[in-house]
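Record Putative NBD/HSP70 family sugar kinase, 421 aa.
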Amino acid sequence: MRAAGGVSGPPVPSNGAGELLQLLRDGRPRTRAELAKLTGLARSTVGQRVDALLATGLLGPVGEAASTGGRPPVRFAFNPQARVVVGADIGATHGHVALTDLLGRPLCEIAEPITITDGPAPVLDWLATTIERLLTQSGRDRTDLVGIGIGLPGPVEHSTGRPMQPPIMPGWDRYDVPHHLATALQLDTGPSAGSATGPVPVLVDNDVNIMALGEHAAAHPHVQHLLFVKVATGIGAGIISGGRLHRGAVGAAGDLGHVAAPGHAQVLCRCGNTGCLEAVAGGPAITASLHAHGITAISNEDIVQLVRSGSIPTAHAVRQAGRTIGEVLATCVSLLNPSVIVIGGSLAGAGESLIAGVREVVYGRSLPLATSDLQIVPATTGRQAGVIGAATMVTQHVLTADRIDHAIATQSMSHAASATA
Ligand SMILES: [Zn+2]
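=>
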């Protein structure tokens, strides 16, 4: 199966219904007359397209519009409950899976400890079982599922869904993640699958890109240029440019963890290089510096708890890490000119200490024009960023105009075939 790219099967002519749905995805109910006025199309054409969308369930009637007399006209709106999506956030030691609606809003969730180093087969079998459990829990049928989105803690070739030389995932290099899940769940991935949006794609990306998509969709949907920075044991960024995720030539865009932090050439990094940003400002670097002050912190959660309980040396160390991250981000601001930088990841819970350090350096180092409109804010989606982002990746993929048109065409062809059988 193909994880991404063009619609499979023979090309079908656009029937225009998919384009009409894009207009309605803002959630506002509209009458046929309002849609005709908005699109400049004939009433009869709008009527046909509305009927085609009603048949898929993606559009539904809601209430009645005010009428000047006679039978009141019906309003129609996008129905996000019509289908469900799976968003999965797989970390080194945790698995978090949510069943969401078509707006990426979680309907039910399961979070359990997993071990990524067990290798792909046990972890993906756990994921398949968890998806079955969520479908049963929510009472949704397998045919309601339009796609599965997965975030993994390493580099991923998004077009094939295969991890590429992931440093903390032994056994996963180039593993065909979509194929494993499609087989385990017996997904109908062909062009004539029963679902109203066609085949059920399995899309995979790295965890930071997924979190950037989730935070963008949930908190900054109208922002065109956004940089999401994950600060945890490692440090990485997801880049939204022109409203879309920017992955780069081989999916490595935003890998800030191993960019050189100025003035730290002596610090050895796990990648074998020296002076890398995450070796200087990541969670383990902060716990090591606290150790020198006689403060015991083992995990990132310990650091966050210490800051919250008022430990001044910890707040100081976190703020210093923020400054170091800010040095690298000042360069990113000059290069990308984002209007929002979101700071997320498990150390973002340390709140103002981290962000204050980032702001101090970014605003101080960047040219006024680049920062005149720049906000540096904490992430709002917290632990849900990954699952919301993974589901958003799927809805952006399956609800495009050409995929909706293709699904409507194949559905009517299969209806015609079963009628003549
Ligand atoms: Zn490094």
